[in-house]
Amino acid sequence: MANERQAGVLEGITSNARREGGKGPPPVHLWNPPFCGDLDMRIATDGTWYYLKTPIGRSALVKLCASVLKREDDKYFLVTPVEKCGITVDDAPFMAVEMRVDEGSGGRVLNFRTNVDDWVACGPDHKLRFEPEPDTGGLKPYLHVRRDLWAKVTRALFYDLVELGEERNVAGELMFGVASGDEFFIMAPADSLKEFA
To answer: What strand order describes the sheet that includes 139-146?
Structure first.
């Protein structure tokens, strides 16, 4: 019975998302419908979406749900103009899985493709951040995708970012980071790099 209710709620969300998404990305930041409860839906650390503890195999359904994903504080919701359902996100809702480097007259721009096929140009509106990884002593990189939603950058792409990295003097301290879109994103103090190698 609970699974039937969950299926009905998910069907309502996806049909509303299809209707609203036909005109471009749905304006989820403008929607504040009543909370309808939590769905048994989870986005795992590796970016896999689960529904009723089973991986969602249809990429079109994942992309549709991702288009109506909203974050409020530390909670995640699928929203439409008429309903809002909570879901669980283990780390970040997206993964950055591909990177393209464009060199132009304005300098370098790093473009990332997410696991739901959105392309994001890293720069002032889409920043990179690097967090310490307690278990390994390394760094976990994240890319801002939209409205407080982030993509975890894959380990392979992180190594590519390190190869593109450089040292710069920032407020009197030598820092190691990577440049994109007229921004310099600090990874770590240059003298601490041996800790993250």
So the answer is: 119-121, 107-114, 94-104, 149-153, 139-146, 128-132
Q: pLDDT band for 69, please (50, 70, 90 cuts).
A: very high
For residue range 13-44, list pLDDT tens digits in order: 666 656 655 556 788 888 999 998 999 999 99
Phi and psi for 59 in degrees, rounded to 5?
-65, -30
pTM of the full structure: 0.85
Neighbours of 84 (CB within 10 A): 21
Write phi, then psi, for 135 (nearest 5 degrees): -70, -40
Question: Whose structure tokens read 């009197």?
Answer: 172
Distance between CA 69 and CA 65 in Å, rounded?
Answer: 6
Of the candidates 97, 74, 184, 92, which has an alpha carbon nearest to the alpha carbon of residue 131? 92
pLDDT digits (tens, 9 = 90+) for 150-184: 999 999 999 999 999 999 999 999 999 999 988 99
Please report the DSSP string for 132-163 in residue order.
E-TTTSSEEEEEEEETTEEEEEPHHHHHHHHH
Q: How far apart are CA 111 and CA 96, in angstroms?
A: 10
Q: Distance between CA atoms of 154 and 71, rounded to whole angstroms?
A: 22
Q: Is 172 left (phi over 0), alpha (psi -120 to 50) or beta?
A: left
